[in-house]
Amino acid sequence: ADVTFSTWPWQHWAKERPSAVALSFGEQQFSWAELAERTDEYAQGLVEQGLKRDQLVAVVAPNSVSVIWLLLAILRAGARYVGLNPRLSQQELSNQLAQLECDFVWYPAKSGIALDSVQGYEPDSKQALPPRLQLLPPQTPRMVPVTWQASRAATMTMTSGSTGNPKAVVHNAQSHLASAAGLLQWMSFDAEDSWLLSLPLFHISGMAIVWRWLYRGAKLVVASSQGLDVALGKVTHASLVPTQLQRLLENNRGASLSLKRVLLGGAAIPVSLTECAKQAGIECWCGYGMTEMASTVTVKPADGSAGVGAVLPNRELTLKDGEVLVKGKTLGMGYYRNRTIFPFSDQEWFATKDLADWQDEELFIRGRKDNMFISGGENIQPEEVEKVLLAHPAVQQAFILPTDDAEYGQRPVAVLTTSCELDKTLVDNLTHYMRQQVMGLRRPVCYLPLPDHLATGGIKTSRKQLALWLVKQQ
Ligand code: 4YB
Q1: pTM of the model
Q2: Gap between the Cα atoms of 69 and 63, Å rounded
Q3: Ligand 1 atom with the shortest distance to the CA of 287
Q4: ipTM score of the complex?
Q5: Could you read off the pLDDT of 400-446 as tens digits, one per residue?
Q6: Rounded distance from Cα 93 to ligand 1 centre (Å)
Q7: Parallel, antiparallel, or unpaired: how do β-strands 237-240 and 194-196 relate?
Q8: Is 265 touching ligand 1 by the criterion CB < 6 Å?
Q9: 244 lines ligand 1 (CB under 6 A)
Q10: Is any ligand 1 atom within 6 A of the Cβ of residue 288?
C-alpha cells in the first residue's frame, strides 16, 4: 500500500532517518535533518518578504540547488510554485507571468533575465512586474504556522501541447505522491538509491523526480557546473528524454556508469536506442505520460518492442475511438487561469489527443490526433512515417510535417538530424529506402536538416516552431 504522510515529507524523513543524505550538489551534501531545518528557514525568509498562503511564485531558472530550496520553502509557506522556462524570450516570459498573475518571481542573479525592461510591464499598470523574491534565511526566526495538507494546490506546471497557448496544470501533493507511489511499486528506487534531477523542474518530468525522492526518502542529486554527463556517473537513477540518452551513449561509449535504471519518456522511444543502452549495461524503462497526469501513466522495462507497457497503479486508462483517455489519483486539479483553478472539462476522463491501441495487454502510442494531415485524400499520421525513418541507421531524429500543395492539399516533408551530412547521397539513399518501406503519398517529398536552434530548444522539439520555420524555407 502507498505510504501516507502525516507531516511534510522532509520532516517525516528528518524524524525517520535524520542523518541519511537527502540532497547532494557537487561537494555539498545535506542530510534530511539539515534539509528540514533549512527548508523551514528559507520558508521563514519568504514569509518575511511578504509571501502568503495560496500566493503564486514563478521561478524562472534552470535546475540548481536553489530551485529545490525554493520549491520546498514555497510549499512549506503554504504558497504555490510555478516553474517557467528560462529560455523563453522576454516577451513570452512577460506574457506567461501576466497570464498567471504571479504574486512573486524569482530568478538567479546572473541569469541575464532583465524583467524590468520587458514591454508591457509598466509600474502601476495592471500588469506590473511581480516583486522579486530572494532566497534568504530569516532575520528573526520564528515558526511558519502552515501545517501539511496534501490536498492543497501546490504546484503548477506549464504544458504547451503541440498547438495553442501554454496552460498551467495545477497539482496538489496528493496527486504527485500518488504518481510517485504507483511508479515505485513497479520500478524499484530504494532509500539508498539516488535520482539525478536530469530534467528541468519547470517540466513535469523534472517535478516528478522530486516527488519520487520525497516519497521514498532517498537521495536527490543536482548536477553541478560540471554538467549532467559527470553527474550521471554518480547516480543510480535518471529520467531522460530519448535524445538525451542518445547523446549520452554517443559521448560515453563504454565509459563506466553507475546507473541502474533510466526512465525514458516524453516522446516516441526508438527500439534501437534501448537496445544500444542495454549493451552499455543500462536498464531502460519506457514510459508514456503527460503533465496533466503528473508524469508517467504507463511503463515497462524495455524489451525490444515499441510499446509503452501497461497502466501503473493509481491511474486508469481507456481508449475511445482510438484516443487515450485517462483519469485517477494522479490527475491534476485543473488548469489555472484568472486566479482560478478550472477543473479539466470532462470531470471523469481527460482526453489526451494521443492515438493508441492495445496489443497483448500492452499500449502502443501511434501519434497525436492533432498531428494528422491529409495528402491527396490519404490520412498521414506523421509519427508512423517518422518511426520508419528512425529505423534507418543514419537517422537520429525525424519529423514529418505537412507543406501546402496546390494539387494534393498537403504533402509530407521530412526534417532530420543524421549521423552524417544530409547530402545528395544520403537523400538518394533515404528516398530509395522509403520507396521500399511506405506507400506513395506517405513518402516525404523532400528531406531537410533540422536547424540547430530548434534541435536544442529544450526537452521537446516543438512541431509548431518547426512548422513556422518550414514555411520560411519555401
Ligand atoms: C509520448 C510518449 C511516448 C509522452 N511515446 N509520445 O517521469 C516520466 O514519465 C518521464 C521520464 C523521462 C522523460 C519524460 C518523462 C515525462 O514525464 C514525460 C511527460 C510529458 O512529456 N508530458 S508533456 O505534457 O510534456 O507531453 C505529453 C505528451 O507527450 C503526450 O500526450 C504524448 O503526446 C507525448 N508522449 N510520452 C510517444 N512514450
Answers
A1: 0.94
A2: 11
A3: 38
A4: 0.99
A5: 999 999 999 999 999 999 999 999 999 999 999 999 999 989 999 99
A6: 23
A7: parallel
A8: yes
A9: no
A10: yes
